Amino acid sequence: MPKLYKIASTIDRISDFIGKIAMYLIMILLAVVVFEVISRRFFNAPTVWTYELSSMLFGAIIMFIMPYGMLHKVNVSVELVTQKFSKKTQQIVNLTTYFIFFFPFMLVLLYAGWKFALSSWQVQETSWSTWKPPLYHYKTCIPVASFFTILQGVSEFLKAIIILKGHQPPPLPGVKVVKAKEVTYG
């Protein structure tokens, strides 16, 4: 069990780190959009590059925030049926759905994204716009983000196994676990 615990904890730290990097990309995206608004509205000098750059940044943010979202349970989860189940049954349902739905879908996305990015690198693909930025760097985000999302899926799978075995899963990165004292009143 300590080995599973350590693997899940390491993957969680990686996903947390990647998510925080993606959050900083939001600040860069904000700066690009503000720059465009100021140059367009106040100086009547729109740029040819900000629209495309902001689309690329937004896409990268969405892709790289996925493992972070899984880690912190911010994705939509339909628990109308499973909330009535025991903890053990809930974990069995989690394991089953990860195995049947999540992993196959993400592996297909990884494979297709890899082929998509590889073909873009082979032809040194650029955009159709006047700015013509290279697209192969951006398209590489798809398989890389898919890999890290699969990695976080492995962590979630391992945590479900840990819970099934009757142990506590590792705490989230940056969260200090404090043992509660019993408080008596009166």
List keywords for this structure.
single chain, 186 residues, mainly alpha, 4 helices, elongated
Brief synopsis:
The protein has 186 residues and is mainly α. Helices cover 68% and strands 0% of the residues. It has one domain (2-164).
Mean pLDDT figure: 90
Derived structural class: mainly alpha
Described by strand count, sense and barrel closure, the largest sheet is: none
Number of helices: 4
Number of separate domains: 1
| Helix and strand sequence | HHHH
Helical coverage, percent range: 55-70%
- Broad shape: elongated
Proportion of strand residues: under 5%
Number-wise, the strands total 0
Poorly predicted regions are none
Distance between the termini: 42 Å
